[in-house]
Specification:
45% of the residues are buried. The chain is α/β, with parallel strands linked by helices. The protein folds into 3 domains: 172 residues, 3-Layer(aba) Sandwich (Rossmann fold); 249 residues, N-(1-d-carboxylethyl)-l-norvaline Dehydrogenase, domain 2 (Orthogonal Bundle), CATH 1.10.1040.10; 46 residues, Single alpha-helices involved in coiled-coils or other helix-helix interfaces, CATH 1.20.5. Helix 7 links the parallel strand 7 and strand 8.
């Protein structure tokens, strides 16, 4: 009996996905470039299972049912292209290659086109949930050649996480790079969520003077509110974890954050598409600032300041902080969905936003209770421009605003950096302003560069240029052609 699917790449994610597939009754053929790892896997974690080993790509292909389905769980970038190039000579028309790594969506667009020209099908599948998710149920975001979906759907939906109602956190996202684009936005939101939690932690520790045990209890209480999520769960555990000497382990971790690039990609795409992804961009920059450890230590001696202790009722401040975190998180998701909406329009992907929220409901890093509310919002109105058009989210934001302003203002007074919470409330204030000072900005552009402007007393689409100094010309830069 031949295998249902092949998996290339036996690092932890690959191994765990294979074991997950085996548990669900699928016969998997496993391959790794360093073939000794295949034997180690078969004699180790896969011992006693129905998993089949392959020691060459030819053997892998020969052991699979047609149409062959081969999933790459390898490092994104050139390694994916190398394996595709090596696989193609062994494959037949209609066979399917799946990239389960964190590839950049333009690469997925290109691979779809190149493989289609060879009669082969390609899926770019975002997989979220880390090692645990891969083993017990990840969120899976597949996109690419739609004719592939019927062949991989039974496998992917069986191994994916399930909502409390039993719905699989896996469904078809859209054509070409849609799956990897949605995974990229997921990772961008993840960056934002993590930074927001860190800002709340610093406000508690440096501003309110709370001990780690007290912060642990505060986070534990937040788990019973709308903030209930995987990242709040693990932060609660981390704050309680003690080193061998009985002191909080997290306090001994160097304060420099790493990144693998997906948050940066999200920000770059937002700039390219003209979407104000301010919170997620700030979260990327916050990691960049953290990486300048030696420079920060030196600069701290030039600007000597310590966070001021915040006076007042601690319980009131904690509730204000909780509301600020919740409201900021809503803005993060709002901006992420705005970016997906623009990409869907640009690439004709016809993304289903409520369905996307469902994909993230369980299994992934950003899984949280209120993703169900996002799904409901888009079911009620699939044309939502932003989440606050929905009554549920509008009420939360309006209720949180006084506390949110208080926390952000106090953080500036107390010298506690809160770039993401500040960016979130600034976005809300700007997005909900009927008039912004961009009229002066446009006048400046016309003054120095003859870039023209529109007038409030004329129809949209009519452009004007003013000779502001009497020494300039009457020709606008936008109409002049050489």
């Amino acid at each position: 009996m031949k295998g249902d699917i092949g998996v290339i790449g036996l690092a932890v994610m690959g191994q765990n996905l294979i074991l997950n597939m085996n548990d669900k009754g699928f016969k998997v053929v496993a391959f790794n470039r360093t073939t000794s790892k295949v034997d180690e896997f078969l004699n180790g974690a896969a011992k006693g299972t129905n998993i089949i080993g392959a020691h060459s790509l030819q053997e892998l292909v020969d052991k699979l049912e047609k149409p062959r389905k081969i999933m790459l769980m390898v490092r994104a970038g050139s390694v994916v292209d190398e394996f595709i190039a090596q696989l193609v000579p062994y494959l037949e028309e209609g066979d399917i290659i799946i990239d389960g790594g964190n590839s950049n969506y333009p690469d997925t667009n290109r691979r779809c086109e190149e493989l289609a020209a060879k009669g082969l099908r390609f899926i770019g599948a975002g997989v979220s949930g880390g090692e645990e998710g891969a083993r017990h149920g990840p969120s899976i975001m597949p996109g690419g050649h739609f004719s592939s979906w019927e062949h991989v759907k039974p496998i992917f939906q069986a191994i994916s996480a399930k909502t409390p109602d039993g719905e699989p956190c896996c469904d078809w996202v859209g054509d070409n790079g849609a799956g990897h684009f949605v995974k990229m936005v997921h990772n961008g939101i993840e960056y934002g969520d993590m930074q927001l939690i860190c800002e709340a932690y610093q406000f508690m520790k440096d501003g309110l003077g709370m001990s780690y045990d007290e912060m642990h209890e505060a986070f534990k209480a937040w788990k019973k509110t709308e903030l209930n999520s995987y990242l709040i769960d693990i932060s609660t555990d981390i704050l309680a974890f003690k080193d061998t000497d009985g002191t909080p382990l997290v306090e001994k971790i160097l304060d420099t954050a790493g990144q693998k690039g997906t948050g940066k990609w999200t920000g770059i795409n937002a700039l390219d598409m003209g979407i104000p992804l301010t919170l997620i961009s700030e979260s990327v920059f916050a990691r960049c600032v953290s990486s300048f450890k030696e420079q920060r230590v030196a600069a701290s001696k030039l600007f000597t300041h310590t966070a001021e202790k915040i006076s007042g009722d601690r319980a009131e401040w904690l509730e204000a902080l909780r509301l600020s975190l919740l409201a900021s998180k809503i803005i993060s998701y709002t901006q992420g969905f705005m970016l997906m909406h623009e990409a869907s329009k640009t690439f004709n992907w016809n993304l289903n936003y409520g369905n996307t929220a469902l994909l993230w409901r369980e299994g992934c890093i950003i899984r949280s209770v209120f993703l169900g509310n996002i799904r409901d919002a888009y079911i009620n109105n699939p044309q939502l421009t932003w989440l606050a058009e929905d009554e549920y989210f509008r009420n939360i934001l309006q209720n949180a605003l006084p506390s949110w302003r208080k926390v952000v203002a106090k953080s500036v007074e107390a010298a506690i950096p809160m770039p993401c919470m500040t960016a979130a409330i600034t976005f809300l204030d700007g997005y909900t302003s009927a008039r912004l000072p961009a009229n002066l900005l446009q006048a400046q552009r016309d003054y120095f560069g003859a870039h023209t402007y529109e007038r409030t007393d004329k129809p949209r689409g009519e452009f004007f240029h003013t000779n502001w100094t009497g020494r300039g010309g009457d020709t606008a830069s936008s109409t002049y052609q050489v």
